Amino acid sequence: MAGLSLILFAYMAQAVTPDAVRVGPGDLLTIRALHVPEMPERPVRVDDAGFVQLAMIGRVEAAGRTTQELSKDIERRLVDLVREPQVTVEVMETRSRPVSVFGSVRKPGVYQMDRPKLRLVELLPIAGGLEPDAGSRVIVARANGGAVETIPMSKLMNGQNTDQYWVFPNDSVTVPRAKLIYVLGDVRRPGGFPLKDDETITALQALALAEGAQITAATKNSRIIRKGDEPSEQTVNLRSVLEGKAQDFALEPNDILFVPSSASKRTSIKIAEAAMQMAVGAVIWRR
To answer: Which end of the chain offers a freer environment for a tag, N or C, measured as fewer CB atoms within 10 Å?
Structure first.
């Protein structure tokens, strides 16, 4: 996912002008009024109705306005009270533009957007980036029961046309976890391997993903362990499959291909139990 990180840095380098920021209910503002001691510089919270209460001029509608629009309105109200008022408004804390990120990201949760819309390639790294077991698509559910978009991860990673993938306040973004197969035991790179959408894989292909068996492996005693309420186990003679003397076996998501060591003395049941325990903490290798 290095490509996605590079895209992030490119977009984060683009400045966001204050005019692009619109105020909303719950936002915390700092309002500075030059030469107006009656209006001291201190944080003020926008209330649920979208107003702020200010000295000298009372309630001012803030929600829906840019910081520049709000400062100009305050200046207009002060002009009869103060000569040439100069007002600046800054958003110190945003609470009015939440977006939820769930699924296979490092820091799932609710984040506040600092602008009216945000590129999806910017949001995912804000949520810590993708977990190794992230799937090949992102699901964006629009606010208030709106449309649901499914976006291929490949379109985000290639850096092309990313301007068409935006998220807006109150949207919900989910990165589903990929389906995995595991190759464990006496192999060069044990761990879990994400499957692409609708991908089928065989035991021999899975062994190749794990960079093959160690020289000490007993490939003829390999096993496919299928997890479930009642785990099942099937012996696979990978040596014969490699030699073209036996048919390869198709794996299903969450299957474990276990290649024991030739020195292993464990019973079949103990191997299955050990393999499932190993799968829980297995390294996930992205392909």
So the answer is: C
